[in-house]
Each structure stands twice: as C-alpha cells, then as structure tokens.
Write a structure and sequence with these properties.
Elements (H helix, E strand, L loop, with lengths): L18 H7 L4 H15 L6 H69 L3 H17 L4 E11 L22 H13 L4 E4 L2 E2 L6 E4 L2 E4 L2 E3 L3 E6 L2 H8 L3 H13 L2 E12 L17
Antiparallel strand pairs: 1-7, 1-8, 2-3, 2-7, 4-5, 5-6
Helix pairs in contact: 5-7
Length: 288
C-alpha cells in the first residue's frame, strides 16, 4: 500500500515589498507625497479672507505711509521757514546795530568838536585839552590815520577728503583765537600805536575769543580773511614783527595747515574810535 501523498506546504508571501525593493523603485518618501497632497488640497480651498479685503488693507497701509511722508515734508518746510525768518531777524538786528553805531560815532565826533572849541579859548583849557587828547589816544577812543603794517591771515580752502592734520579744532577751522591774539600783541610790542582787526579797533578790555565755530572780537563776529592793521612806523614795526614769536608761529601754521599768511606795509590806514569800556584800578587796601 502506497503512502498517501503529503500536501505541499503553502509558502506565504509577504505582500509588502522589501526595503531594498522600495529603495530601488520608490524614489520619493511617502511623507513628502502626503505633504504635497495636503498642500494641494489647501490651495484648492476657498480663502477665509477675500482678496478684496487684502487689497483694501494694502491701500490703507500705503495711504498711511504717504500721509506720514507728507506730514514730515510739511514739518521740514515749517523748519526751513522758521530758519529763514530767524536769519532775516538776525540781519535786521545787525543792520540796526550798524545804524546805531554810526549815529553814536557821529554824535561823539560832534561832542568832541564842541569840547575842543570850548577849551581852546584860554591857556588852562588848552592844557586840559592836551591831557584829554593823550588819555583818549591811550584808550583808543579817538580817530587815527597814517602808515603802518597790514597782516592778513586766511583760512585754507576746504577740500573733500582732507586729512585730520588740516583741522586744529572741532569746528574745522585752522586759525584759532590765540593766533589772532598773538599777532595783535606782537604788533603792540613792535611799536604799533593803534591796531584793528577786520575794521574793528582794538582798545582796552577788548577780547578775542571763539564761541563754537565763530571768531569774536569785542563780541562782534569776524571772518576769514582776518585783516590785522597796525598804525605806526612801518619799517620799525615790520623789522620787529618778523622776528617775533607770533611771526614764527604763524609761519609754521601756514606750512603745516595751508593757512594764508602775508605781511605788507600799508601807506594809508584809518581807524575809528574803539568802544568805550569801564576800567578799574586796583589799589592796596590800608590797615583796618
């Protein structure tokens, strides 16, 4: 009797492809495909906010930006207008000050002529007049004229990209107040009888100083070129001035910083009176 045939063993197949087969056939990860499908579904949905509202919001934003720009432009115009008004007021005040100064000088000359006529009538009056003339000449409150020396100091021409060595102070000027003061003092020492800077007579208690970017003489602004004139014996003043410390100082400044510095004799100089300042005299206090 033949043995019964055994049924063949049914081999179970794995329906899921192997990892190697998946790597060779499926080049895109399933997660990427799912994300792409979800993104496509979202794009096909109806937007929650209509496009008209987006356009309206953009128009509002653009309008606000233009409004801010217009307001800034208007405020800038107001600032420019205020600056122009301030400049006009300053110019008017300067013109008024010049008129008053001319009137004061004319009245002072009239008073001086009347005084001279009254004091010249007798001997004592003439002696008093001579003393007054000497005091006025020493105080610089009389008008003088004659030959002398003229010193001109000029700021260098500003150039773009200038190096730091061309600047001696924060405002960018190369000529300092101490330069002008040194020249004035040296002219006095050299024998000058009267000195003026840019037409302003230098008298007692007159200061030369800087205020920000401005150069002030007796609280009045002066500007480059600074013309410093001295009345006196021209040859004597020039000989002594060219060997002074101020001359050597300005020659060095001219070489290092490009400052203009010229010295020349002058044949016909004329100065008006200097401003009158109250003078004080110190005296030794006695025992208490």
């Amino acid at each position: 009797m033949e043995p019964a045939e055994r049924p063949e063993k049914q081999v179970r197949r794995n329906p899921v492809p192997s990892l190697l087969t998946s790597l060779l056939t499926d080049h895109l990860d399933p997660g990427y495909g799912a994300a792409a499908a979800e993104r496509t579904a979202q794009h096909t949905r109806k937007p929650r906010v209509p496009a008209a509202l987006w356009l309206l919001g953009g128009a509002v934003v653009v309008g606000v930006i233009f409004g801010i720009a217009f307001s800034q432009l208007a405020s800038g115009a107001d600032v420019d207008r205020a600056g122009s008004d301030a400049s006009a007021a300053v110019r008017a005040a300067q013109d008024r000050s010049a008129e008053l100064e001319a009137t004061q000088q004319a009245l002072a000359e009239q008073v001086s002529s009347e005084r001279d006529r009254a004091l010249q009538s007798d001997v004592s009056g003439s002696a008093l007049l001579d003393r007054l003339s000497a005091v006025e000449s020493a105080a610089g409150i009389d008008s003088v004229s004659g030959p002398g020396l003229s010193v001109v100091v000029t700021e260098p021409v500003a150039e773009d990209g200038a190096s730091d060595r061309s600047v001696r102070r924060g405002s960018g000027a190369a000529v300092l107040d101490r330069d002008i003061a040194a020249i004035v003092n040296s002219l006095w020492v050299s024998g000058a009888e009267a000195v003026s800077v840019d037409g302003i007579r230098v008298g007692p208690n007159v200061t030369i100083r800087q205020a920000g970017g401005a150069m002030l003489l007796d609280n009045r602004p002066i500007d480059s070129p600074y013309e410093i004139d001295a009345i006196g014996p021209p040859q004597r003043i020039q000989v002594q001035f060219v060997v002074s410390d101020a001359y050597l100082r300005m020659s060095t400044v001219a070489q290092l910083y490009g400052v203009g510095f010229t010295v020349r004799p002058a044949t016909d100089l004329e100065f008006g009176p200097a401003a009158v300042r109250e003078s004080f005299q110190a005296e030794e206090a006695g025992p208490r």
